[in-house]
Structure formats: C-alpha cells, structure tokens
Amino acid sequence: MRLLVRNGTLVTEQGLIAADLLCADGRIRALVDRGEPQPADEHVDATGQLVFPGFIDPHVHSRDPGSTHKETFAHSTLGALCGGTTTVLEMPNAIPAVTDVATFESRRREHAGRAWVDFGLWGMALGPANLHEVVRLHRAGAVAVKFFWGYALDKETKGLVYDFAAAPPDSLLLPPENGEVLEMFREVASYGGVLAAHCEDRHILARSAELLGHPIETYDDLLLARPAVAEATSIAVGAQFARVTGCRFHVVHMASAAGARVVREARAAGAPVTAETCPQYLTLTDRDAERLGPAIKVYPPVRSQADQDALWAAVNDGTISSVGSDHAPHLVEEKMLGFGSAPAGGLGVETLAPLMVDAMARGRISATRLAEVLSTSTAKLYGLWPRKGTIRPGADADLTLVDPSGSCHISNDRMHALNPVTTWDGWNLRGRVTASVLGGAPAMKDSEPVGERRGRFVAADHDGRRT
Ligand code: NCD
Ligand code: ZN
User: How far is it between the farthest Cα atoms of the chain?
Assistant: First the structure.
C-alpha cells in the first residue's frame, strides 16, 4: 500500500520542509517535490498543515490489568489515537507490576490485540528485590525501568500506595535506601539502560506531613506536605549517582523550578541526566485548585506560576527533552475523597497533543521544538529512534497532522477514557490536531478512528545509542 501525503509542511530534524511525503509498506519511502505525480493507492491532503513525526506519549498508566474499573488499555490507546498520539509507552505499575520478564511477556501479549496505537512497555525497578531482573527486562525490549522513589508499594501486589502514612506498615514495601539505589544505578549502567525515577524524597515527605500537624485538608496543606525540596533533593541524589556510575538517569514528570535547576546544573556538569514534564505542570497552577478541587491532585503536585514559567524555560532550553501525559486515571468518586485521601493522578493521554499544539499556536514553543519533545527526543531516549520519532526514509510512517490556525474544544463528552472526566473540560484551544497516519495508513481523522485497530508492540533497541 502506497500513501501520499500532499501539500503539507513537514517538520523534520532538519527543520520545516514544504514537500510531499511518499509512504509504502508501512515505512516512509521518500520526501518528494510538492505536486510531482506519484503512483499511490491513497492520498492525505495536508494543505495548510504541519506534518509532524507521530507523537509519542512515554508516560501512560492504563491500569490494565488489575484496576480496569479505572481505565483499560483499549480505552487509553483509543484516547491516544483520537488525541493525535501514535505510540504510547505503558508504565509498569498495573497489577501485577512488570517486575520480571514473565510479566513483561504476558503484558505484551495481552495488550497486543487491544492497542489502537503502537506501544512500548516499561519495566519496574524495585531495588534489591529485582536487581538482576532489570537487565532481562532490557533485553526483552523494555524502553526503560522506572523506580518509584517516594512511594511505598503494597508488598503483595507491588501496587502504589498513595498515602503510606495511613497504611499498615507491615503491608508496605518501602523504597530502598540510598546505598541500594546506588547499586541499582550501577546495575543499569552495566548494560547501558535507562533508569527513570519518580523523584520525591520519602523522608522529606514523611516529615513534612508530620510538621503540618494535622491531616491534609486544603491544597496549600498538600503543597506543604510535598514541598519542591523533596523533588529537588531526589533529583540531586540521582544526578550524583548518574555521574559516578555513568547510568542514564531520567526524571519523569518534573514539576518544580527547583527540580529544573538541579537538572540544568547536572547536565552542565556532564551528568547523563534528562527530564520530562507534563501538560498539567505547563498549563495549571495552584490557583486552579479551588476551581478543580482534588481533581488537580497529582504526584508530584502542580505548583506556582513561577514553577510553571521555569518549566517552560526548561522545555525550551533543552533541560527538559520529553513531554508525556502521565495519564493516571481514577474513579470520580475516588478523586472526590478530598485533597488528603484522594489518589493522585488524572486523565491526560488524549489531551497531551492538543494542549501542546495550543502552546505552539500561542508562541510558547516552536514547531521544531514541539517535534523534539513530543517525538524525536522521546524516541531517542527510549531506544525507538530512528524507527520512530523522525520523518526520513526508512522510518515507520507514523505522522500527526496539525492545523496551526484551527481551534478545538475539550469536553468530557468527547473523551474516550473509561471514566471520561478531564481536568481541561471546557477549555477552548488554539490549533487543532486534524489527523494521523499509523504504519503508513490513515488512522485518525477529526478525533475519531479511521479503519481497524492495529497497534503493534515496539521493542526498544538501545544498542549504541545515547541522548
Ligand atoms: C501515578 C499513578 O497513579 O499511577 N500517579 C500520579 O499522580 N502521577 C503514579 C506516578 O506516576 O507517580
Ligand atoms: Zn510517578
């Protein structure tokens, strides 16, 4: 099957190019002169549109299996597709968690028939409890391993415990001590993998909550109980470990100016540290808490306007190289339990691209930087480039089409999630994701799927690659 994408402006690693794009057998075949006749079975008209390498969401918690009352992989990948994302990287903290290869393989099999977009899988790093399993996860094609620093896990299920002060201590698996964390960095460095972490220092969290002197009631209480210094401290420790071991260390969902400062300094000093942030940290602040209530609660928390501004600066100066959604659904009833008791997380996979396109249309980020943080740099980090993340011959023909002068409206009625309640309900956005191509065939148009569900598993290949 040959597909010709006509009259668009391609966002390539060499900049914007006005050209047609010929795809054949699932791959990009050639960039050709606009209007030059090409034999093709199908055409996509991209007049007036930017054609991006297919967007990748590296941070999706689909709750499947284990908590399929919250979300399923079919729902989250359909949301991804309709929002303009063509590959998702599924986080390991479903139940059972992906802490060994047997679980990795069964997750891969279960998800294969359900995926509306291509998908990769994360592994989970526990510390001593699976120290020698992480290399096997890497060899099986895991994009990276994630270490949930700052969480306690349920001993039995390895599920996250959102409020570990309230849980019976003997049911908990606490995060390992720093010596063991250093050992884990050494292990991941030994095979050239990527160790990503949820960075919040649990001792600072625990003591800050105690010092509050009463249970968390307001959003200000929540911010006092989870101060930015908890994030910055964990990042600083991780950065030191990265530096001495050579392990590639990636900070997921970075939420604070203090964190961004530490990452910038560590990178300047040559440490192999990269960072991700998410649309919630780039579009919301603590001032939205009154309007949104506990729906705004995510870990690490959304902070001040100054934090938001610092994160945008970090996205644009390269300190942050990847933007993911941290799609982490819960039931509405659970989210209504209040700022203290509600579990952390909210929808995101379907709104990732629209919110970032809106930022581009408002001049906060250029088209070429958007392509990097939503596709190219993400693909490089997770061992998917140059198969994904680039418009060049030989790459998978995954494309996201954007009309920069269009507009779109976000509403709960149009969300494809199992529990379709989004933080951005009612927002009017500039720019519009109009269509996508997956594996060389049209996959989405006007926020609805086109054709069959045909997402495939993609294994990471980290050999010889560094970002
Ligand atoms: C995530 C979840 O619920 O799985 N929640 C969140 O607030 N970010 C876990 C995580 O990524 O920390
Ligand atoms: Zn996390």
Answer: 72
